[in-house]
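Model the whole thing, not chain by chain.
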Amino acid sequence: GAGVSQSPSNKVTEKGKDVELRCDPISGHTALYWYRQRLGQGLEFLIYFQGNSAPDKSGLPSDRFSAERTGESVSTLTIQRTQQEDSAVYLCASSSNSRTHIRVSMKVETQYFGPGTRLLVL
Amino acid sequence: GIQVEQSPPDLILQEGANSTLRCNFSDSVNNLQWFHQNPWGQLINLFYIPSGTKQNGRLSATTVATERYSLLYISSSQTTDSGVYFCAVDLLSNFGNEKLTFGTGTRLTIIP
């Protein structure tokens, strides 16, 4: 597609329920990122996928959060047993970062963001 | 961790005015991007500018990497320029994890 797409665009759920958010990156982009934006604040990094490397999960706020990515395509972010403080906009981004050899060369490219999923936990 | 500070936090201008938004960061960076978040929440890439100067229409940006700051210039402001402007950086020392660290943003309101 032309850009990063995310679904659903809005999600209202009850406290304690699980939710699954989906991201379709730009075709050919090897890197995929999830961020969270609380109301009136900047974006917080959650997790990063780069090609076939192990994902960097250092930004996940608790073990209720997990994410998967199939190859270099779709990613899903799952939040289990949702809490009211999970209410936020969840944004996905992709880029065409390339790495020729770890710690030798990395070409970092622009990150392109999707429209986000607005999650409200009641 | 890295500090990314943006100023001013809020800016209200008359249509047609010029403005300068500033981003200070506390460490060497591998990537610096400016984004505009429109009132519908969409993040729009403005510039990828880890160093140097770029221009795109009424917008231009300059990053002085050695002094750890970047400036975004908006000339002849229009009401459609309203929204929040974010600076985001990726640390050079962060090799292997190219996550962006965002500033808290500058909220720009252009009055007709």
